[in-house]
Amino acid sequence: MAKFNRSRLAGALSAVRSRSTPTARTHEGAPGHARDPKSELFLLAVSNMVGEQTFYEGADERDERFRTLAGQVALDDPDWTARMIGWLRADAGMRSAAVVAAAEGVRARLAERRAGGNRPMIAAALRRADEPGELLAYWHGRYGRALPQPVKRGVADAVRRLYGERSLIKYDGGDFRFGDVIELTHPRPRTPWQGDLFRHAIDRRHGRGGDIPASLATLRARAELLALPVDERRALLDRPDAERVLADAGMTWESLAGWIQGPLSAAFWERIIPSMGYFALLRNLRNFDQAGVSDEVAARVAERLGDREQVARSRVLPMRFLAAYRAAASLRWAWPLQRALDASLANVPALPGRTLVLVDRSGSMFGRLSARSDLTSADAAAVFGAALALRAEHADLVQFGTGHAPVPFRRRESVLKVVERFGSLGGTNTAQAVRDNYRGHDRVVIVTDEQAWWGSRGEEPTRAVPQQVPVYTWNLVGYRHGHGPSGAGTRHTFGGLSDAAFSMIPLIEAGRNADWPF
Hints:
It is found in: Cytoplasm. InterPro entries: TROVE2 (IPR040322), TROVE_dom (IPR008858), TROVE_dom_sf (IPR037214), vWFA_dom_sf (IPR036465). Keywords: Cytoplasm, Metal-binding, Ribonucleoprotein, RNA-binding. By secondary structure, the chain is of the alpha/beta class. The protein folds into two domains: about 5-35 and about 345-510, Rossmann fold (3-Layer(aba) Sandwich); about 45-90 and about 95-215, no CATH class. The protein has helices at about 5-10, 35-45, 60-75, 80-90, 95-110, 120-125, 130-145, 150-160, 165-170, 180-185, 190-205, 215-225, 230-235, 240-250, 255-260, 265-270, 280-285, 285-290, 295-305, 310-315, 320-325, 335-345, 375-390, 415-420, 430-435, 505-510; strands at about 25, 30-35, 355-360, 395-400, 405, 445-450, 470-475, 480, 490-495. A hairpin with a 5-residue loop joins strand 1 (about 25) and strand 2 (about 30-35). It starts with 5 loop residues before the first helix and ends in a 9-residue tail after the last helix.
């Protein structure tokens, strides 16, 4: 206990703040602590896949709460909202939530005739070339086709920044195609070739894009490949210049698979792998094995997967590596995936002293993160909890639900292996798990959805921990009410599906305030 200056620690503030006394109930009936609007919006935003049902909230109810909060906070503090949206998209990797927050924030401000700060919110949400169309589709679906000037100009800013030949090849689809976005927002091209691209995108949207301007060399090369007879296409893969030819034509693995019109052989993958993006490699490990990709090529893939700089640039969420590990048939991917997962958890601190890590494995944690994924909040909790325990100087790792049980691990063991030892434990008796496992630790970390039981004693879950000892709650789902107070002294809440906010724990323990991560 002497390792920490408790008087300084007691004065530290953190960003997610709630009332010090309960004013409501959690979904399981325990006393619930309401958060201020920014805190509630932040915790919901960093866990909200949009349009997805969670255990306690239907998709419509959850989305409506998110829209209302985004509008409320944008009215009160548009600069904070724009920073949050930009961070949410770029650092937290929450694409849909960023788009919705931007649209709803601007909509609320325009309804109140608030000028200034609207255009930056729109531009902040758009970081990939398919997202201008996503935002316009969302706006059209909710508010009609008429576009207010801040929306139009914010989208146009993003179009000028994002639209190029390769992005046209990869992302020109959906209800709002590149040509639609350009015609609706009238972006001014940055260069003459981009002007040619804009005109060509409009022409092809209206079925008249056969003549490709000479300035668009990649699109012209692609058109030549598409014109090859089907029975000549596979032979191109055997040419010594195949990698260059395919790269010059902007052929992604998805488009090349359709172009070949046949089984995806080892030769197919070995030609396209050098030009594949990081996430595409991660998604196709099983396909590489099934096609019989050589060990030499697999070694190059493994090197890229485990490269810390590439992991950081990819913004892939830690749970994606767990999904890839479960899907891959070959053990040759286990070590690079572990290295990649470690790199994606770079912000998880090596905590000194003794740490109690409690991981929620109650039934409500087993809802899928999205309809397109088999990953659950319980998976995310296990990954973060295991990573914290493995990096700590001394840690006790415990899973809890109705009851609780230790999770064994060894120093320097793989997070992926430790995650396999977690189970499903029923209810959410957080208070008993804390009470039975706290043994003079220097801190307690609870990874949970905060939907604690009322329990037989009716106690606040962290009450068994002395007030001078910090308790950090890591919220993975973003429900409205928390299981305890947060934001001051020794009780703090963070959240999200990335490791971004873990860096706040060392700040608090150094006696410094931990503000928003943006």
